[in-house]
């Protein structure tokens, strides 16, 4: 069994929201050909569930083409790996803390030099 990522896009009709007009999901199939049959069924079912079945899709596509799917891409997933984002976040926090500590030390050293110059 192979795993595939299916990405559907819809041109137009977006409100500039990230991911607007994009729907993605994973599917498993024995082959790419078998996957295409399953994708066709998913698309047909989705269109029917959302009022885009054949008799409406024609008129809807003519009056509101932004509602129609413009492309479908399929990617075969060869491998996937879980990434622990806590480690990446901790690196950012540590760097931010180190930068803040350096800034405080530089300020304190400048104050020390000012006081040395003033009081000898």
Characterization of this structure:
The structure is a single chain. The chain has 120 residues and is of the alpha+beta class. The protein has two domains: 2-77; 82-120. It is 52% helix and 19% strand. It has helices spanning 32-49, 54-63, 85-119, and strands at 2-9, 22-29, 71-77. A three-stranded antiparallel β-sheet has the order 2-1-3. The longest helix is centred in the last third of the chain and has 35 residues, at 85-119. It is elongated, with a radius of gyration of 28 Å. The model is unreliable at 53-63 (pLDDT under 50).
* Strand arrangement in the largest pleated sheet: 2-1-3
Structural class: alpha+beta
**Total number of helical segments?**
3
Helix content: 40-55%
Shape: elongated
């Amino acid at each position: 069994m192979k795993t595939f990522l299916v990405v559907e896009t819809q041109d137009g009709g977006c409100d500039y929201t990230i991911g607007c007009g994009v729907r993605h999901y994973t599917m498993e199939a024995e082959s790419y050909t078998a996957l295409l049959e399953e994708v066709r069924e998913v698309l047909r079912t989705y269109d029917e569930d959302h009022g885009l079945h054949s008799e409406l899709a024609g008129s809807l596509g003519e009056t509101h083409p932004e509602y129609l799917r413009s492309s479908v891409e399929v990617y075969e997933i060869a491998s996937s790996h879980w990434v622990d984002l806590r480690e990446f976040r901790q690196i950012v926090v540590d760097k931010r803390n180190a930068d803040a500590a350096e800034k405080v030390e530089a300020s304190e050293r400048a104050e020390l030099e000012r006081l040395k110059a003033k009081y000898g």
